[in-house]
Amino acid sequence: MIPSILPTYNRAPLEFERGEGPWLTATDGRRFLDFGAGIGVNALGHAHPALVAALTAQAGRLWHLSNLYRIPEQQALADALVEKTFADTVFFTNSGTESCELAVKMARKYWYDKGQSERVNIVTFAGAFHGRSSAAIAAAGSEKMTRGFGPLLPGFVHLPFPAHGAELEAAVDGNVAAIMVEPVQGEGGIRPLPEPCLKGLRDLCDRTGALLIFDEVQCGMGRTGRLFAHEWAGVAPDIMMIAKGIGGGFPLGAVLASAEAASGMTVGTHGSTYGGNPLACAVGKAVLEIVAEPAFLTEVNRKAGLLRQRLEGLVAAHPEVFELVRGAGLMLGLKCRVPNTEVVQAGYAQRLLTVGAADNVVRLLPPLNITDDEIAEGVARLEAAAAALEGAGA
Hints:
Blueprint (H helix, E strand, L loop, with lengths): L15 E5 L2 E4 L4 E4 L2 H4 L8 H11 L12 H13 L4 E5 L2 H18 L7 E5 L8 H7 L2 H4 L9 E4 L5 H7 L4 E6 L2 E2 L5 E2 L2 H14 L2 E5 L23 E4 L10 E5 L20 H14 L2 H24 L4 E7 L2 E6 L3 H10 L2 E2 L1 E3 L3 E4 L7 H20 L3
Parallel strand pairs: 3-15, 5-6, 5-7, 7-10, 10-11
Antiparallel strand pairs: 1-2, 2-3, 4-12, 8-9, 11-12, 13-14, 14-17, 16-17
């Protein structure tokens, strides 16, 4: 008999009833240190007082309105995002997957309106993850994502990661509408795209007219120590997908775009029932006010340096378990020599939550406001997990 919840998740045997900061309390009373943060969603940890206050205040006034009407909370968040980014305009969604759908539509509609309807192809890169909708899995192109879900949506060109040189130049021909890339791959194994590559993509798009789409669903909202990861390279996209951290745990995503890139999206070309409703935008505004502060981002960078230093020591002390550390900011990955699933499971035994990724990597995505003591505690629990694996002959 099929369970009442569709069995698409391989769930750990853990149930949680409450959280505070980076800590989760299980239904049996055990406390776990959360270095997964809902896969990068809980940017400020669990039950952050400012987010609770924003949600509670808004819930007492108004929960939902159709986008048939003006929504002041939505306008306030859009204005703040435009002020702090490259963007001229914002469309709110409920998730990163929905943001991907709009980014693809926006790029193709741009060229259709320019009288070049043949420019429909989107160039993407191996290891990418852009969501689980039909367009998003076609964009990723991997067998793991696409097997059994054909026929796939056409119009995607897949290149190795990182792509550069003649292969990339040849791929961006007169049929390409856009290049879509994560500045730091998340599901793909915490793989940052080198800054020269990001700059090269921007230059290539400027030369060919192709639009540049950045997927910052996982690496955005302060995760790398800048508000958005692409800022480290000093370049800007034409379109950007965000979600996860922007809602701090409340479902919220967005597509940010320049006026030119968004020029094809006129009345009736896209919509959302829930996207940008008052509850979500009130919380999103509270998150942005905290995360965008320069002093906050300075602390993220300091703590990221501390965590990385301790992880480098961990790798050096346990070379049979770990191979290397990579990533950016508080988006770090431990590439493992043993199966990463074993490391995640050993972490559970030490009451530490981490997240697996491709390329045999364990993701570490703690809340951005984690303390130095909590960083030390998390690494100590990883140390104990590694020691246990070595003792078991892993």
